[in-house]
Design brief:
heterodimer, A: about 270 residues, mainly alpha, MetI-like fold, globular, B: about 290 residues, alpha/beta, D-Maltodextrin-Binding Protein, domain 2, 2 domains, nine-stranded mixed β-sheet, two-stranded antiparallel ribbon, palmitate (chain B), signal (chain B), PBP_domain (chain B), Substrate-binding domain-containing protein (chain B)
Chain lengths: ~270, ~290
């Protein structure tokens, strides 16, 4: 029986290894051919003219992810605090499944929701086309909520109850005990949740593509259109040939490195905690 | 602790104020027609067959000093990667302008007349509406008999009649088709734009040759061309011209139909006619406001 488990474990490792090999073998030569600096720092993406600069897309991914954190993290942590320490049991039975359901909604549905609900509201508020950094940030903020809430809640619940009782015994109110003893004690777990949320936000594709505008330029305001790394790959992969196709795989390599950094910092954090 | 409640209260007020603005904004802007306001240009992604044809036909693609063809579509143009998102975007934004395949046009958006000609199949055939592109299929030299019989059918009177029925334009036919009574299997793969008409052709062909099975796989032009070259399918479909690098792999292209491209605006837009020069100026970013268009 042991061997079956071993095979199962090997299979997933093999999958990761194959993806790495495929991605780097196809993407890295293209990056060299274009020139590392031209590729990473080039401002112009015009595949028809052999100009492959993904700087606007890198900036776009960073902006949108940062926006998602600003929107989603405070809301997520407060929600986790509520679920762990304030929520009556009967309400918990409704809220918790609702949050889990949020995680299960396909991203294309989020995208469509953004396109028909958030985008028109933004059009009225800003007068532009309503697609851009802010719209994408709001939608991604909603999308990372379940991740942030789930991990933060279990981190808060993992704090020994004696911390809370100790604070109460010293005369602190319920709120004060939760916010000044439980939250600091659960800090690392919450940070882990945030990092996982970042991973989700930066890798999100189908929803963002519908509401970000996708202009391959560095946005000049938070209402300006933006194209992320993932959007760049998905939009053009279907039609791309030759160096264009390789450049898209190169974009994948950059994205992969981003995700790798995020996961490494996540595991570093976990190690420090234990 | 009061601090937290004060903060929560402030946020609640801010949120309700924002949504309040959203609601009233909708009411006031709803009545306008788009005779002014900055133009939201919506385009397709680089390498899309529709975009390639559009920029070529309107002269948005031009040669620079070095003799290279450059796509001058304004960098601030919003990019969508599907016809559906393009139509939802234009239908929901009264300042938007975009373009789609004529076969996909419906009432949610308004197609502009170009140089006075309506975007219709009749006008494309008569040559007054000039914005159209080819639908291609590609094969390798060692084509099976049954696949080549299917291509004969597509190019025949009967096949081209199917093309016309589905809103695309025939390029003329090569005589009548007589059922060959062959059997076998044909695998077709490629462009999602060509797939709908290919499905109809398949139905009509199977009605005549019940022993033949045809499998149509929908993906995209490049995948279609690649799988023909690698032997993964018999016939590839492309909604664009076949590239030189693909011809080098031994592909033989055949045009099976023409598809018009409609320039679309929001239904509320008061403009219904545009010269091709104006379209070009809008998509290259020279004209940025609807009020500049007389």
């Amino acid at each position: 029986m042991k061997i079956v488990f071993l095979l199962a474990a090997c299979f997933s490792i093999l999958a990761v290894a194959l993806i790495c090999i495929f991605l780097f073998a196809n993407g890295v030569p293209a990056i060299w051919k274009i020139g590392v600096l031209d590729f990473l720092l080039g401002q112009k993406w015009m595949p028809a003219n052999q100009l492959f600069g993904i700087f606007p897309m890198i900036v776009g991914s960073v902006y949108v992810t940062a926006g998602a954190i600003i929107v989603g993290v405070p809301m997520g942590i407060l929600c986790a605090v509520f679920l762990a320490r304030f929520c009556p049991e009967r309400l918990y039975k409704i809220v918790k499944p609702a949050v889990s359901l949020l995680a299960g909604i396909p991203s294309i549905v989020y995208g469509f929701f953004g396109l028909v609900v958030i985008v028109p509201i933004m059009q009225d508020l800003t007068g532009g086309n309503g697609k851009g950094v802010l719209t994408a940030s709001i939608l991604l903020g909603i999308m990372i909520l379940p991740t942030v809430i789930g991990v933060s809640e279990s981190a808060i619940r993992a704090v020994p109850n004696s911390y809370y009782e100790g604070a109460l015994a010293l005369g602190a109110t319920h709120e004060r005990s939760v916010f000044f003893t439980l939250l600091p004690a659960a800090k690392q777990g919450i940070l882990a949740g945030v990092i996982l949320g970042v991973g989700r936000a930066i890798g999100e594709t189908m929803a963002v593509i519908m509401i970000a505008g996708n202009q391959p330029v560095v946005p000049d305001s938070i209402f300006g259109g933006v194209r992320t790394l993932t959007a760049n790959i998905v939009m053009e992969m279907g039609y791309a040939a030759d160096l264009h196709r390789e450049a898209l795989l190169g974009t994948g390599v950059v994205l992969f490195v981003f995700i790798l950094i995020i996961n490494l910092s996540f595991s570093a954090l976990k190690r420090r905690r234990s | 602790m009061k601090k937290f409640f004060a903060l929560a209260l402030t946020m609640a007020v801010a949120v309700s104020a924002l949504t309040g603005c959203g609601g009233s904004g909708e009411e006031t802007t709803g009545g306008d027609t788009a005779a002014s306001g900055s133009i939201s240009v919506v385009s397709r992604e680089d390498g899309s067959g529709t975009r390639g044809a559009f920029i070529e036909l309107f002269g948005i693609e031009a040669e620079n000093e070095a003799g290279e063809k450059v796509d001058y579509t304004t960098q601030t143009a919003e990019i969508t990667n599907s016809t559906a998102v393009m139509m939802t975007t234009v239908a929901g934004n009264k300042n938007a302008i975009g373009y789609i395949s004529l076969g996909s046009l419906d009432d949610s958006v308004k197609a502009l007349k170009i140089d006075g000609a309506d975007a219709t199949v009749e006008n494309i055939k008569s040559g007054t509406y000039k914005v159209s592109r080819p639908f291609n299929i590609a094969t390798k030299a060692d084509l099976s008999d049954v696949a080549s019989d299917f291509i004969t059918f597509i190019l025949s009177d009967e096949g081209q009649a199917v093309v016309e029925e589905n809103g695309y334009i025939s390029e003329g036919s090569a005589g009548t088709y007589t059922a060959s009574g062959m059997s076998g299997k044909i695998v077709i793969a490629g462009s999602s734009s060509v797939t709908p008409v290919m499905e109809k052709l398949k139905e009509a062909y199977i009605a005549l040759n019940p022993d033949v099975t045809i499998e149509v796989q929908q993906n995209d032009s490049t995948t279609g061309m690649t799988s023909v070259a690698e032997g993964g399918c018999d016939i590839g479909m492309a909604s664009r011209e076949v590239k030189d690098s693909e011809l080098e792999k031994g592909l033989q292209p055949t045009t099976i139909a023409l598809d018009g491209i409609a320039v679309i605006v929001n239904q509320e837009n008061s403009i219904s006619d545009m010269t091709s020069e104006t379209v070009k100026s809008i998509f290259t970013g020279e004209i940025t406001d609807w009020s500049e268009i007389a």
